[in-house]
Amino acid sequence: MSPTVALIPFAILGLLTLGCAAMMLFSRNVVHAAFWMLASMVSTAGLYLLLSAEFLALVQLLVYAGAVAVLVLFVVMLTLRRRADAVRPIDFSLPALALAVSFAALACFMVLSLVPAYPDSLPSVAPGVTELGLELFSTWVLPFELASLILLVALVGAVWWSGGVKRS
Amino acid sequence: MQQYAVLIPELIVLVAALVALFADLLGGDRVAAMVGAAAAAMAAVVVWLVPVPEALFGSMLTFTHGTTTLMLRSGIAGLTSLFLLWVAARGWAGVRAREAVALTLFSTVGSMLLISASDLVTLFLCLELATMPAYVLMGYSAEDKRSLEGALKYFLMSVLTSLVMAYGLSFVFGMNQHTSYSPLQVAGPAWLGVAVSVLVLVGFLSKMTAAPFHYWVPDANEGAPSASVAFVAAISKIAPVYAMVRLLAEVLPTSDGLSRVVMICAVVSIPLGIFAALVQTDVRRMVAYSGISMAGYMMLGVAAATPAGYASAVFLVAVYAVSVLGLMLVVAQEGGTFADIAGLVKRRPVAAWSAVVYLFSIIGFPPMVGFYGKLGVLSAAYRAGYFIPVLIAVLMSVVAGGYAFAVIRAMFTPGEGAPEETGIPAPVDATEYPQAPALAGTVIVVLAGLSLGLGLIAEPLISLLQASLS
After folding, report:
1. Of B87, B213, B356, B397, whose CB is crowded by the most CB atoms within 10 A?
2. A163 contacts B113? CB cut-off 8 A
3. What is the CATH topology of the domain spanning A1-88?
4. What's the pLDDT tens digit per position in B405-460?
């Protein structure tokens, strides 16, 4: 694929990601904001796909678009008592803006200063799911198991707080 | 296969954690706590018996620091064992304790692995495994709104700062192109290295409850069961501080800029913690503020950026943990407010005198072990040329005597309508729980003995740590 052809879908997806993120920030209805976030996450998955990182794209769809966005919607559903509560005034906080801008600026600067360290062209074949699985259960087996323990702890905590056990 | 034997201690603790989750089948809370205490004690011994390889899983875990690694892993397991023995005797604030025992053990596994972690991914996951149970423990009284509020503040603050740390670690990965520990190759101007280091340190400093990440601590401590505070404010702080100084010694670039940032945090934390501790009338809140000032003293050693400074910082946190653990266990069985402990010396002389030892160690009064920790960080910072911060820190340690003596005065003078005349014991967290006062008393005396006795071997311990961090 020539660079120009690749640039067009990249530009579309990139603008979609940014546009949806901006819409999320500027929508006054929290339910709408949640859906804009979902759209932004899906277009990010498209960007990964464009870089032929299929596994990452799949994870992005499953975990972020699937689990996280649904979780956010659940929280909204469970905490709102009336439909009118979903509409909130836009909370414009200057310190938060400054913090977000400085974090983003640091990231941009870092990317720019790191670019020469990376090769001009991507490897012809990005590692597929098989290689990833092999890697995950050989080199990375310890972090993998640690993550499972963290999830177990979170599960125990959730059961404890939700009152699934008799507390005395 | 043989090199994996080094992880047997962690596995023992992990198995005990899983057993504690299923304690319903075994007989309940006391069995869970006893199994946990026995397993942790066994782990503390087994650490010294198994062969130690250089590295494991590629270089995810390294044991090159020899005795230091073993000492810290064994120490964490040993303290957990003592803590769980106390839980076996006194229970957990009168609520079901087996889940809390399991969470304590999970956190201990995370702490023990964190000591040998030498990969950014392992580091982050171990740190999360060590702190995740703490969120639940701080909100363990699920009916108590204050406890839940404190736990929620703790959770949000800690998760936020963990994310900032992950952001910083991602830059370290980007610059080094791999996640194992090696000196950071700063691509770009030097301030970038400082910025990355600050981002990474934010995560650690918030776990150490340093200012400006401290505001949740007093509320959380006051609301949470005292047994939870004993674990979270003491044992779970040891591994993070060692991981932090190891990261500073092996990965992050040290510079004047970074030292200056850490020093500012230190100079804010110390007076803030000590002045706020002076006016408290609840030992749990006082412990929270004294923890903030202790984080400040620890940062003096970190800002010195010398092996001696790092070693004393770790030593200070570790011995502070011993004393705070003891003090909070006394609070957990006698009550936290000054009214609760009024006249304690007549009711429970052993607990009261042990508390005196802990308090002297916390404020750094010689010959208690806390004195040597403070002396170490102060002399390291002084040698690094920080005269004014050291002067402030020394003056503040004198002021710190005030809050210790306030507690001691409360214990040694009968309050209004003091219960010792009527013979009714003060309100206790676990009144309904089957108690074994002798066992709990033994734990408290052992911890007091450690607070005194470790001072005798402070010098060799600090130089061992120093050798491993240079």
Report:
1. B87
2. no
3. Four Helix Bundle (Hemerythrin (Met), subunit A) (1.20.120)
4. 999 998 988 865 544 444 444 445 444 445 677 888 899 999 999 998 888 888 88
- Which among B269, B203, B235 is positioned nearest to B80, based on CA atoms? B235
Domain ranges of chain B: 2-469
**Chain A, nearest residue to B124 by Cα:** A143
pLDDT in tens, B316-346: 999 999 999 999 999 988 888 888 888 888 8
For chain A, say whether B55 makes contact (Cβ under 8 Å): no
| Cβ atoms < 10 Å from Cβ of A84 | 7
Helices (H) and strands (E) in chain B, counts: 20, 2
Residue A81, chain B, CB below 8 Å: the answer is no
Smallest CA-to-CA distance from B233 within B170, B169, B294, B165 is with B294
pLDDT for B365 beyond 60: yes
On chain B, the residues whose CB falls within 8 A of the CB of A114 are: 174-175, 187
A52-108 pLDDT per residue, tens: 778 889 889 999 888 988 888 888 888 877 777 778 777 778 888 898 899 889 888
Pull the structure tokens for residue A98.
């400054």
A 10 A CB-CB count for A160 gives: 21
pTM of the model: 0.90
Q: How far is B341 from chain A (nearest CA, A)?
A: 26
A86-90, B123-127, B294-298, B392-396: range with lowest mean pLDDT: A86-90
Decide if B443 contacts B435 (C-beta within 8 A).
Answer: no
Query: Tokens representing B206?
Result: 């918030």
Q: Would the pLDDT of A4 be above 60?
A: no
CB nearest A150 (choices: B132, B143, B171): B132
User: Domain limits of chain A?
Assistant: 1-88, 126-168
Q: Within 13 Å of residue B316, how many CA atoms lie on the same side as its CB?
A: 31
Q: Which of A103, A141, A147 is opposite residue B125, by nearest beta carbon?
A: A147
CA-to-CA distance for A31 and A117, rounded, in angstroms?
Answer: 42
Token pair recorded at residue B208: 């150490």
Helices (H) and strands (E) in chain A — how many of each?
7, 0
Closest chain B residue to the Cα of A108, Cα to Cα: B171
In this complex, the residue of B129, B142, B187 whose CB is nearest that of residue A149 is B129
Half-sphere exposure of A78 (CA within 13 A, CB side): 6
pLDDT tens sequence across B381-402: 999 999 999 999 999 999 999 9
The rounded distance, in Å, linking the Cα atoms of B400 and B138 is 26
Q: Is B60 within 8 Å of B119 (Cβ atoms)?
A: yes
List phi, psi (to 5°) of A116: -60, -20
Closest partner residue to A110 among B96, B142, B171, by Cβ? B171
With contacts defined as CB-CB under 8 Å, which chain A residues touch B109? 149
User: What does the pLDDT read at residue B234?
Assistant: 93
Amino acid letter, residue B383? R
Of A142, A152, A160, the CB nearest to B142: A160
Chain A, window 95-134: residues with a beta carbon less than 8 angstroms from a chain B beta carbon: 103, 106, 109-110, 113-114, 117
Chain B residues whose CB is inside 8 A of the A161 CB are 136, 139, 142
What residue of A is the nearest CA neighbor of B110? A146
Look at A81-85, A151-155, B27-31, B143-147 and tell me which has the smallest mean pLDDT. A81-85
Q: Position B457: which residue type?
A: I
